[in-house]
Amino acid sequence: MEPMFAIYFATILILLWVSWTDIKTRTISNEAVIALLLCVILLAWLDYGTVFLFPSVTTLIIGFILFLFKVIGAGDVKLMSVLMLTTPNEQVMSFLFLTTVVFGLLLIIFGWIFFRQSIKQQGLPYGVAISLGFLSNLWLFS
């Protein structure tokens, strides 16, 4: 099996794990984020020969501020920051658009129609939108 395929496959499996646990428990485990970090670093290095620290650190700082104001969960911030390591500067807006507008909006609409009570009580499992936004962005630019 080609190494790139194995890394993509592992990344998809980890993002499925992240999405599933976020739906079930509204948490994104540190173990999943660390496993994803290893895959993302390999992906970025093999695809681009570098990791993209500026988008990642910027996301971490802005995300931390949003977390302090209870706008976003800490797991979502960690997940976005790790995924940004493999997102070149020119793809950041695409990733954010896909995550927030396309999949975030779909998640809100779908959740509000079918799982309104759960979302009112537990919040929105935004790790799903982040994962789908990342995978779509990866697919669009690969």
UniProtKB/TrEMBL annotation:
Mode of membrane association: Multi-pass membrane protein
Organism domain of life: Bacteria
UniProt main location, coarse: membrane
One annotated Gene Ontology cellular component of this protein: plasma membrane
UniProt cross-references to Pfam families, sorted A to Z: Peptidase_A24
A GO molecular-function annotation: aspartic-type endopeptidase activity
Prepilin type IV endopeptidase peptidase domain sequence ranges: 10-107
Location relative to the cell: Cell membrane
Transmembrane regions: 31-46, 53-72, 92-115, 124-141
InterPro entries with a match to the protein in the record: Preflagellin_Peptidase, Prepilin_IV_endopep_pep
Entry keyword set: Cell membrane, Membrane, Transmembrane, Transmembrane helix
Alphabetical list of Gene3D superfamilies matching this protein: 1.20.120.1220
Protein name (database record): Prepilin peptidase CpaA
